[in-house]
Design brief:
Layout: E1 2-3, E2 12-28, H1 31-43, H2 48-71, E3 76-87, E4 91-105
Parallel strand pairs: 1-3
Antiparallel strand pairs: 2-4, 3-4
């Protein structure tokens, strides 16, 4: 499955647009991770516990996006984007979304 942030995939042409597709993930750090992150924030710099959480969550959202696109019969997703937010103060939501399409070599 090709996932692109562009409208077109170089060397391919879109033969069918199947519609919007997305993958949603909501995650929370455990108590230990929150304590470690809180201590790190006192001294400044990167908070690795939260960076890892966001990176893993984005990868998981893309995996769900790809699964949903495949279920629609797509072999690519174009115009893929991320959106994120917080639910309460302890949970992070990440949505990967785009347009499911069928492409073929040009």
């Amino acid at each position: 499955m090709i996932v692109a942030t562009t409208e077109n995939v170089s060397g391919y042409r879109t033969v069918e647009t199947l519609g919007q597709v997305f993958g949603v993930v909501v995650r929370s750090r455990g108590l230990t991770g929150n304590i470690a992150a809180g201590l790190r924030s006192i001294f400044g710099g990167e908070i690795k516990e939260y960076s890892a959480l966001v990176e893993d969550t984005r990868r998981h959202a893309i995996d769900r996006l790809v699964g949903n696109a495949a279920a629609m019969g797509a072999n690519a997703v174009v115009m893929m984007r991320f959106d994120s937010g917080e639910i309460g103060q302890t949970m992070s939501e990440v949505v990967a979304y785009g347009t499911a399409v069928r492409i073929e070599p040009a």
